[in-house]
Amino acid sequence: MKLQFWTVGKSHEGYVKEGVELFTKRITNYYPVEWNIIPMPKNAAALNETDLKKKEGEIILNALQKEDCLVLLDERGKLLTSEAVAIFIQSRANESVKNIVFLIGGAYGVSDVVMQRANFKWSLSPLVFPHQLVRLILAEQVYRACSINRNEKYHHN
Length: 157
What we know:
43% of the residues lie in helices and 22% in strands. The protein has five helices and five strands.
C-alpha cells in the first residue's frame, strides 16, 4: 500500500518544511509515501469561490485513480483518536487498498463533487488550522498511527 498526501496550494513553508520532511521520512519505514502539491489554477485570483473550487476539483479528480481510497481532511469530518487512525490505515492495508490519498483542499475547501468522491472525511480537530500547519499535523498523525500499528514506543497512552 502507498500513502499519498495531496494538498492544494504552495510548497511547504519554512516553518513546517522540516517537520513535514522528518515525519514523511519516518513513514517510509512502514509504507511508500509521497507528497503531491497541486498548484492553484493559473487564473485563481480572477475566479470566485465556487469556480475556484470547481477548477481545483477537476484537477484532483483527474489525478485520482478509480481504486484510490480518498481521505478528505475536512473540519466537518469525523474526529478520530490516534488509535482509530491506526485502525483505519491497517484496515485499508488488510483490504489490499493500493493507495490512500489524504487530501487537504484549497483555501475554500473542495467542490461538492470531490466531497462526494471521498471515501472518508476526517477532521483533525474542531479548531481551524492554517493549511500549512495541517500538513505537519497530518504527517505526524499518520506516522503515529504507523508506530501504533507496530506497537512501537513513539505513542504513549
